[in-house]
Amino acid sequence: LIHFIKRLYSEVINTMKSDSTQNLTSLRKLMKNPQFVAEPLAAYIVPSCDAHNSEYLADVDMRRQFISGFTGSAGSAVITKSQALLWTDGRYYLQAQKEMDSNWILMKDGLPSVPKLIDWLAKNLEPGSHVGIDPLLISSSNWKLWSEKLGSVGSHLTALDHNLIDLVWKEDRQNPQPRRPENPVFPLEIDFTGCPWQTKVERVRKELKENSCEAIIFSALDDVAWLLNLRGSDIAYNPVFFSYCAITLKEVVLFVAPGQVDESMKLSLSSIDMGESVQIRDYEKVKEYIATLGEEPIKIWFPNTSSQGLVSLVPSQKCLIKLSPVAEMKAIKNETEMKGFENCHIRDSAALIQYFAWLQNNISSGQVTEISGADVLEGYRKEQEHFIGLSFPSISGAGPNGAIIHYRPKPESDRTLTTEEMYLIDSGAQYKDGTTDVTRTLHFGIPSEYEKECFTRVLKGMIQLAMAIFPDKCTGNRLDTLARMHLWSVGLDYGHGTGHGVGSFLNVHEGPSGISFRHNPNDPGVQEGMIFSDEPGYYENGKFGIRLETLVKVVPAQTKYNSGLSMLTFAPITLVPIQQKLIDPKLLTHEETEWLNSYHQLCRDRVGPLLKDDGKKDALEWLYRETQPIG
């Protein structure tokens, strides 16, 4: 029976893989076709980003997914004459193995034994090799580093005029490449932004002058949306739209598809008092504008995520490559944005508590699956004020599926929720007043002592980071260890970062700061007003996954001594209880127990009244039961 189940499982997994043979064959022909390449390519790089260096993509830009079959949000592919390799990080090892066919080799990025993509190319290609890439899909910073690395071994990084994946995709009649979306763009009211776009533009111009520049080109979609108080829906789950924005000392120019411009948008970008208005030009004209600007005797600031395809339009001596000034501005929430975050998290937490109460009453029916459960949760969120949509596809994983860090249930993998396994649900929503992202792990039966120990050690890590006191502008990689040390002490760990920034009704993953073991040279440090996730985890392949994610805001810390240092700490925004049956109280210190009891009281105080007013009796009872003091 066990042999039969394993064979059946293997057959199911194989049906999940797409056959990449024909597409790889077509790509390799293009790699030596003189119509598209000046010199035959020894390798072609397929990054996972778009021309705006976005993490999440519109369907039209999912080139790496098209060629490899891997659907994760991070990773880069390399295709040589005889091999196809995919680099991705620890969040996606299991997923990539399940999704890619036998043509592909998985390179587990982050493991000490696995070389970086560019190092592998430099070592494995013959001297004089040409490596092709679409210059719009690589930042100018990476272009410089990769060119130098390949040049050191006599090879060349080559910018191509045509994206070869697009050419292959164009010929795929069964799976044609979608059109680029041009969905409506709408202004976000001052009640939610807390600051007019004109004020933001003046802040940018001040930065320009301080950096001896006369112009800046924004290509990151969330930079443009935040800067001009506009939102869209061109990329699923991310309220952004395809655009560029140029700011000079004299003008502001927005590049967007003409079909996305309506009267409300024009009005929002105009000044009633005859002040400055934003010029609107065609999205396709941005290169022409930059090239013309580059002919003037001025210095132009390109944020360091800008593509080589844009930066190369301007002589290098006229370019400043530096972190976007808007990246830090939008990371530090203003008073209105912070209040919106707090309010939307009360409502969002109420939706999650309703879902958990519903699960408690329905899981034993055997009719609840990963997909149907996530749909029920989305239904509760839709009932909340200012709801726009989800902030990412819900990661709803039961038992072994929970061990796949960024698992997304599909019909062929949809697992029934039972009282015999742990259940991990990582989900979030977009509201006009903020963005949510929360993970809880639950067990609706009797967890094992080992599961309780692992869960409690993850909880200890979450609490230790939440309680941390640290200097202003301390970088995130100095805090990451706090969330891992209680796992490390027993030989356990997790393969992802501990925290990321979150946008204000924007991208659920927002830079430039983060909390991770990886060094981030662009991290300006943790500052008051920023918002981060606090999300340690532990994943046992084939058995279960545990993650606890709570969003926290950065606030001033009260310390015993005042030495003149500005000290900071975190305060929770997410208000969803930690399931108590999975906690081993003996493993918690007195300080950790006090923090947990205080947090649970906060959940009661802030979410309880909303559930009571809405008549959600079952949810209110679940909230009170799961927030009883322990210890």
Could you characterize what this model shows?
Helix content is 35%, strand content 19%. It is built from 20 helices and 28 strands. It has a six-stranded mixed β-sheet with strand order 4-3-2-1-5-6. Strands 12-11-10-8-13-14 form a six-stranded mixed β-sheet, sandwiched between helices. It has a four-stranded antiparallel β-sheet with strand order 21-28-27-24. Helix 15 crosses helix 16. The protein is globular. The N terminus is likely disordered.
Identify the notable features of this structure and list them briefly.
single chain, 6-stranded mixed β-sheet, 28 strands, 631 residues, alpha+beta
Radius of gyration: 25 Å
Multimerization status: single chain
Largest sheet: 6 strands, mixed
Number of helical elements: 20
Strand order of the largest sheet: 4-3-2-1-5-6
Kindly, what is the distance between the CA atoms of the first and last residues, rounded to a whole number of angstroms?
Answer: 45 Å
Q: Globular, elongated, flat, extended or rod-shaped: what is the shape?
A: globular
Low-confidence stretches: 1-15
Mean pLDDT: 95
Helical proportion, percent range: 25-40%
Strands, count:
28
Which class do the helix and strand fractions yield? Answer: alpha+beta
Beta-strand residue fraction: 15-25%
